């Protein structure tokens, strides 16, 4: 029987689309070359096994690669570049698209911006009355487990761009996305402050590591 070679990632992508690639095939497409004695496919597979997932791999720091054979500064730079390119893509996409098409798009954007942050960051997405994105920005930054939020500043930014609605978000660097009592209290204060200016708070998302909590999904807004 004639042996049929497996399709290379580039050929597979051209024939069936980029989403047809497995994680290791997609990673191999970016890395392009392996290391001495190891093909790029073997390298990609071993990296994913070592770090557990694409997320674990792309959020690892340089020190975590010291026990990974064949990974030097050049390969590490490639991996960090992939993560940063994705973050910038989502940032631009939010302003280029006509609207927030789905909750998934909002979540993916916020995860790209906040998941890897080492301290708490509070940000907002401001929208017009047709849910088109007017602006998104980091409003407040804090420590590992606390960020001070000023509701009046959020309202002030909303008024500047004539926003009709806002989506709130912040991260938990600990990785656990469950809201604290303080999170719920500040959300209530922001909603009350926004109501005076007829600005709707559509959601507040807390971003952890590989998880998130949406206040709207839980019926808390």
Automatic annotation (TrEMBL):
Family: Belongs to the UPF0758 family. YicR subfamily.
Pfam families named among the record's database cross-references: RadC, UPF0758_N
UniProt keyword terms in alphabetical order: Hydrolase, Metal-binding, Metalloprotease, Protease, Zinc
InterPro entries in UniProt: MPN (IPR037518), RadC_JAB (IPR025657), RuvA_2-like (IPR010994), UPF0758 (IPR001405), UPF0758_CS (IPR020891), UPF0758_N (IPR046778), UPF0758_YicR (IPR022820)
Name listed for the protein in its UniProt record: UPF0758 protein RBJ67_18975
Organism: Enterobacter soli
MPN domain location: 99-221
HAMAP family listed in its UniProt record: UPF0758_YicR
Top-rank taxon: Bacteria
GO biological process: proteolysis
UniProt GO molecular function: metal ion binding; metallopeptidase activity
